[in-house]
Amino acid sequence: MQSIQNPSLLSFLCEPSEQSLAVTNPATDEVIGHIPTQSKAEIEAAIERSHEAQGYWKKRIAKERAAVLKRWFQLIMDNQQDLARIMTLEQGKPLTEAMGEVAYGASFVEWFAEEAKRVYGDVIPAPMSDRRLATIKQPIGVTAAITPWNFPIAMITRKAAPALAAGCSMIAKPANLTPLSAYAVAELAYQAGIPRDLLTLVVNASSSMVGEVFCSHPKIRKLSFTGSTQVGRLLLAQCANDIKRTSMELGGNAPFIVFDDADIDKAVQGAVASKFRNAGQTCVCANRFYVQDSVYETFVDKFVAAVKALKVGNGLDDGVVIGPVIEQKAKESIEHIIAHAKQEGATVACGDTQQSGLFVSPTVLTEVRQDMDIVQQEIFGPVAPIIRFNSDEELIDMANDTIYGLASYFYSRDIGRIWKVAEALEYGMVGVNEGVISTEVAPFGGVKQSGLGREGAKQGIDEFLDVKYLCFGGL
């Protein structure tokens, strides 16, 4: 692969064969490399090795585990440019954005290296004089992860770092569309001193087969999944047989709300950042826009002008803000959503022009109504439907009218309204006067059918720990 300074990052690449998986650049449709796949038997054998590795890893003191993770963090940052280029080539996001994701992914490794040393138990006041009560936290054991294509490095590190910090092992399946970034960042983990059997990556053309193995194998004690709600339901059902612990970061339908007292210029800036990051292909992207009637025209005019200025193209080209969508069926889905919204009465304010390959014009739709299909769909593309509203009460009802509850955003300068709306929104995360809210120091996760559990923050490591109660009697 051209322009990669550290060839060790790609040591996993292989020659094409029936047992390899081809990875394609969505911007050019060129095959950029092949990686070996693993059979069901090989995956099961890897789980057994992971179980063995976890047995001695959990015995290492937290400070030692932290030191290894810190070396991994430093290696990621030392190779930031190479990792970003690999990501742009296989996933399509602009290079600057990919650089940001590498740093974001590394931040979880650094954070959980520090949290490894802060896994505290409790001493509980005893109800009887001859007893002493306490709790300790212990690693769950072997954990599994299934990660998506839209954040191929950050979703690996956000799961693997807390698992390793807690004393668990992890076997992970990156997305078949974007495995190179995950394998490259894992290679740096091995160079940092993390044993290969402790952090193992596997791929197979049949993602469902890998999922079934993860959910059914008795030595896997926890599954962490990021992906669609539909697939999450299936995995939860499969994990139920063994009562496995799960973390589920699933679909979203984020409202972006602009009240009449908002700073409109800042709201436009936040809307563009939230909606069009990664070509709209994130679960926390603004998915539907609610703008109060008295500022509707002003916001739309400024928002459309900002969207028209966004450059679409190959993520390696200068000035590109929006790269390609990930695959052809994604483009077809986005085009269908736009066409159906137009049939239901939406107006195209900008965009909706034919683009070659997997590129999609950033599109703004106005005069959208709450009863349209587009309002209940996760668009996962650069399309912004805008809906009018009048009262705060009407807005809360419309914003919460969804099965999803991941992220939400609103702009207002009235402190009373801010508290009222923030508390009323049925979402796991609320951005107030801010369109980009993800950070390693805050808990990431949703409510309703957007998932279970939290990633990042102090809560993230608890997802990989069991609480054990100790009762000392006869004292």
UniProtKB/TrEMBL annotation:
- Spell out where the chain crosses the membrane: none
One GO biological-process annotation of the entry reads: gamma-aminobutyric acid catabolic process
The chain's coiled-coil residues are: none
| Keywords annotated in UniProt | Oxidoreductase
Under the heading Pfam families, the entry gives: Aldedh
Renumbered to this chain, the signal peptide range is none
Note whether Oxidoreductase occurs among the keywords. yes
List each copy of the Aldehyde dehydrogenase domain by range.
17-469
- Location of the active site: E249
- GO molecular function annotation: succinate-semialdehyde dehydrogenase (NAD+) activity
Keyword Oxidoreductase among UniProt keywords? yes
**InterPro entries registered for this protein in UniProt:** Ald_DH/histidinol_DH, Ald_DH_C, Ald_DH_CS_CYS, Ald_DH_CS_GLU, Ald_DH_N, Aldehyde_DH_dom, Aldehyde_DH_Superfamily, Succ_semiAld_DH
Similarity comment = Belongs to the aldehyde dehydrogenase family.
Stated name of the protein: Succinate-semialdehyde dehydrogenase (NADP(+))
What's the source species for this entry? Photobacterium proteolyticum
